[in-house]
Automatic annotation (TrEMBL):
Family designation: Belongs to the iron-containing alcohol dehydrogenase family.
Protein name, entry field: Alcohol dehydrogenase
Segments forming domain Fe-containing alcohol dehydrogenase-like C-terminal: 190-322
Keywords annotated in UniProt: Oxidoreductase
Pfam families tied to this protein: ADH_Fe_C, Fe-ADH
Source superkingdom: Bacteria
Coiled-coil region: none
GO molecular function terms noted in the UniProt entry: alcohol dehydrogenase (NAD+) activity; metal ion binding
Length: 379
């Protein structure tokens, strides 16, 4: 028997215009508050409309330009330790993860690397400042996960997490209006990351009826949103609302059941290349779906048949291939063409560290190499 535990936000606001809850939340409980965001958000009409209400309630603003490194987290912690009592994050996954890390490590005495999974030597505690998370992309689900992803591409070459149940943001504000105007490649690549979270959690060896139903709910939302995701007007608005829901449910699913071989490879690739994480997952997802139909694992085969019926009300001898063709036919952007390069040495480095994580099947080095061959130009 596998027991699952769901740890979610204490408050979740969902729907068009829900960002207007932020000034009220900050005013009702006045605390020295630090905002993390991207530079594009500060140039947006959303910030122009919100600034006069929120700016007076802040003690500072930090810009997160990319996936934060351990050194950047340490610099922010040193600057704000003892000066803030709450953190707000408005942005994509990198912004939310950086804010989660600073909120937590401002309450810890050692530097980031000491607590980081894979390389650290000290267990992180649950001490953290309260955090309000406002995603402006629909993909990572960071607004409801227990982990903050940190990346060091320069020195130790690692992409790993700070992780504790108390790191789930207290408040999430899911306003699909914030997805309007996002570039098509951001919308599509983030969405396919959300789908990968849901599918891998659905097929996880740690899964059960509870986690799989959560994942199915998320994949149904994804299917409703994927075909019109990049459209303007009311259809696009409804699609982006569904994708924001899919992303949040993906965060819940991965927190309960974990991820699989796609992220087992993508996490290592992300430690050495600047490729968009969602696109990496999407490129690996397509060959992975081919492997699913070829693999005889009985439980996995049953789960894929059940998923195919849940999503499309159909049965198929090759349910994963049907899913793959649907994803490609309905994509608002052809992200899998124009293969990006990986050197032979980079592939060897990735495969020496990658793993199948919580997959029902332990995928061999040869199978993982084949996935990379299909997704990238190696040479």
């Amino acid at each position: 028997m596998i027991t699952s535990q769901l740890i979610a936000n204490r408050q979740t606001f969902f729907g068009s215009g829900s960002l207007q809850q932020l000034p009220r939340l900050l005013t009702e409980t006045p605390l020295p508050t630090l905002l993390f965001c991207g530079s594009s958000f500060l140039r947006s009409d959303t910030w122009k409309n919100l600034e006069h209400q929120v700016q007076p309630l802040l003690v500072g603003i930090e810009i997160v330009p990319h996936e934060a490194s351990p050194g950047e987290i340490d610099s922010w912690v040193a600057r704000w330790r003892g000066k803030i009592q709450r953190v707000v994050a408005i942005g994509g996954g990198s912004v939310l993860d950086a804010a989660k890390a600073v909120a937590a490590l401002s309450q810890h005495p050692l530097n980031t690397l000491r607590y980081l999974e894979k390389v650290g030597d000290t267990t992180v505690s649950g001490a953290t400042l309260p955090l309000i998370a406002v995603p402006t992309t629909a993909g990572t689900g960071s607004e409801v996960t227990q982990n903050a992803v940190i990346t060091d591409k320069a020195e130790i070459k690692v992409k790993a997490s700070l992780r504790h149940p108390e790191f789930v943001p207290q408040v999430a504000i899911l306003d699909p209006d914030l997805l309007r105007g996002a570039p098509d490649n951001v919308l599509v690549c983030c969405a396919v990351d959300a789908f990968t979270h849901l599918l891998e959690a659905y097929l996880s060896s740690k899964g059960n009826a509870f986690t799989r139903q959560t994942a199915i709910s998320g994949m149904l939302a994804f299917v409703r949103g994927w075909p019109q995701l990049t459209e303007s007007g009311s259809q696009g608005d409804r699609a982006r609302e569904q994708m924001m829901l899919a992303s949040w449910l993906g965060g819940q699913s991965l927190s309960m059941a974990g991820l699989g071989v796609i992220h087992g490879i993508a996490g290592e690739l992300g430690a050495i290349k600047d490729y968009h994480h969602g696109e990496v997952c999407g490129r690996l997802l397509l060959p992975f779906l081919t492997l699913l139909d070829e693999n005889p694992h009985p439980q996995q085969a049953v789960l894929m048949q059940e998923l195919n019926f849940a999503l499309f009300q159909q049965t198929s001898e090759q349910p994963a291939e049907q899913l793959k063709q649907w994803l490609m036919a309905n994509a608002g952007l052809v992200f899998w063409q124009d293969l990006q390069p990986l050197s032979v040495d980079e592939v060897d480095w990735i495969l020496s560290r990658s793993n199948s994580k919580n997959s029902l099947v332990s995928y061999s080095r040869e199978q993982q190499h084949w996935m990379l061959e299909q997704a990238y130009r190696i040479g």
